[in-house]
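Design a sequence for this backbone.
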């Protein structure tokens, strides 16, 4: 998983192509000298697909002081 952000970008773009949804994912260029808040931007005419993704590394080891694992935020659909 050396290119996690790039793999996610490709998968999201394949999702749009497969579902025939107008949208795209774009991986932001990384720079050590500049502040970067997100890694991948996703945009579409459908507002359900507006996303900003920040990818984080997780150590395989856990200590008693380490924070919990990632928990996704659940949203309700407005259909």
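Sequence:
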């Amino acid at each position: 998983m050396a290119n996690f952000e790039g793999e996610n970008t490709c998968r999201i773009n394949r999702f749009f192509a497969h579902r025939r949804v107008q949208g795209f994912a774009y991986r932001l260029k990384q720079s050590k000298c500049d502040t970067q808040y997100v890694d991948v931007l996703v945009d579409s005419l459908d507002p359900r697909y507006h996303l900003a993704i920040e990818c984080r590394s997780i150590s395989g080891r856990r200590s008693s002081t380490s924070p919990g694992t990632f928990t996704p935020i659940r949203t309700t659909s407005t259909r």
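The mean pLDDT is 78.
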